[in-house]
Amino acid sequence: MTPPPDDHPPLELTRRGRLLRTGLVLVVLILLVLAVTAVVRALAGDGDAPSAAASATSATAEDAGSRDASDAGGASDDPGASDSGGASDAGGAEPAEAASATPEAETPASDAKAAATSTTEEIERTGDTGDGTWTLAEADDGSEPEAGTVHTYAVRVESGIDLDAEEVAGEIEGILADERGWTSLEDVAFQRVASAEQADFTISLASPPTADELCLPARTQGLWNCRVGEDVVLNSDRWKTMTPTYEDLPAYRAYMVNHEVGHFLGHDHASCGGEGQPAPVMLQQSMSLQGCEPNSWPLTDGGR
């Protein structure tokens, strides 16, 4: 006897249905694998570990933050820069040759903050803006000086700020060769060469906006000088108009150069030794004399 036919024939998936089913299965498997991996990492204590990219970013930021600043470069005159070594008149700013170098710029200590702020408000700004190109001064004509250590340096002046590179270089040469300077104190000498590639360090006289860029990460606020690694940066406004702490422009220029080069030689900021004494050249004199008298030179009774 023939059985009756089924009322509902078996369901067969189309090709599209089979592909959809396979895709869903793969998605489920992937999610399961990810979930298991996350659980394993959490149990192993790695769940919160930063990615390699994040670690690299953090390391880079730390390196950048460790750079030295002078009078503004390495250390600078800036109230926002640090007062630590490697800082200049901006408060610890110096253009850095390497990520491990800290800009040095002059920055006031907490007990001198108010006085420094008052001084800053009185500082003259010329409004000069250079064009970002440079004129290098020629090399010294003389033979290599005699000293235990001879440091070669180059001088460059930004175009557009109405300063002659050869005149600036001549004044800097006289400052560095002065018997009251680092040459007598440390048995060193300085020789000007015609290119930064040949030099141990470079002195750049730059307009305020350019000086700010060269002094980063020190905050020179368009006001201060700095030393960063092998670069000494002199703000053209300070070269032309000094600060209220000085009344003699050539004396202030000598202080600018000796302070920032002092950072290059490894000297940190100093404090006033006593009321009425000559200020140490490594005191942030652009901002405050702390009761001392202005002094441009390393070799004084007031110390460094």
Question: What is the topology?
Answer:
Layout: H1 15-44, H2 52-65, E1 71-76, H3 113-122, E2 134-136, E3 149-158, H4 165-177, H5 182-186, E4 188-192, E5 201-206, H6 208-215, E6 226-228, E7 231-235, H7 236-241, H8 249-264
Parallel strand pairs: 3-4, 3-5, 5-7
Antiparallel strand pairs: 2-3, 6-7
What level of helicity do the residues show? 25-40%
Largest sheet: 6 strands, mixed
Radius of gyration in whole Å, from Cα?
31 Å
| Helix-strand topology string | HHEHEEHHEEHEEHH
> Which quaternary structure do these chains form?
single chain
The shape, in one word, is elongated
Q: In percent, how much strand structure appears in the residues?
A: 5-15%
What structural class should be given to the helix and strand makeup? alpha/beta
The number of helical runs is 8
Termini separation comes to: 121 Å
Q: Could you name the ranges where pLDDT drops below 50 across 5 or more consecutive residues? A: 45-73, 77-87, 90-102, 108-114
Biased composition (Low complexity): 46-63, 71-120
Transmembrane segments: 23-44
Region (Disordered): 46-148
Pfam family, one: DUF3152
What does this structure look like?
Residues 128-291 form the DUF3152 domain. It comes from Brachybacterium sacelli. The protein is α/β, with parallel strands linked by helices and 304 residues long. It has a domain at 134-208 and 230-260. 34% of the residues lie in helices and 12% in strands. The chain contains eight helices and seven strands. It has helices at residues 15-44, 52-65, 113-122, 165-177, 182-186, 208-215, 236-241, 249-264, and strands spanning 71-76, 134-136, 149-158, 188-192, 201-206, 226-228, 231-235. Strands 2, 3, 4, 5, 6 and 7 form a six-stranded mixed sheet that branches. Strand 6 (226-228) and strand 7 (231-235) form a beta hairpin. It starts with 14 loop residues before the first helix and ends in a 40-residue tail after the last helix. Residues 45-73, 77-87, 90-102 and 108-114 have low confidence and may be disordered.
